[in-house]
Amino acid sequence: MRLVLLVIALALLLRGYEWVARDYRMPWTPLSLAAPIGPFTTRKIGALADDTPRCHRLLEEAAIGYSPLPPVDGGPDCGYDNGVALSQDQPQAIAYSPAAQASCPVAVSLVLWEKQIVNAAATRHLGTSVEEITTYGSYSCRRIGNGRSGNFSEHAGANAIDIAAFRLADGRTISVAGHWGADDERSRFLKEVRDGACTLFATTLSPDYNKAHADHLHLDQARRGGSRYCR
Q: Is residue 97 over pLDDT 60?
């Protein structure tokens, strides 16, 4: 009887180990674009900055259309060598205007944001889906706040993107500048997609942060070891 109980206990222990080993919420499980967003997703995305081939494989495994961008050498503080352009050749894919061109980790984050947050929020608050996201672009060789001194922006490495508006399938456009403070379903949608971005990006800045972000959401993957800043 003791042997039977021991075998059962070992079987349960192995089953528990296998579950923990595969659980997307654990820090050691590989990132998958099919898995829900977990507490270590941002850290896993951040690790892709040092493994561009792995980043490309993630997009390929998820059947996400993309093309690598030629490296850009902008001097000691600007440029990138891991840029990708997302394509919209999938059914129900969200288009970007202009086309989404950013570092591969930012592109992976955008894919997860679209699939798991943006359209769900649009359905919940607006009763429709998002067809196009308007951006202010990604790469820009400049310092934070366009200052003459100080640290260079994550935009200087194509490691950030600014989101301005969302065009819906029913023809409406929801903009950060026009609807953030509307106190209706449009502002609730915008704040939900901001909050969702905070679970994916290292930095998420909105009109709640300062006047410089009154017309867009700034999303970046600054390297902070998995820590996040959300305003």
A: yes
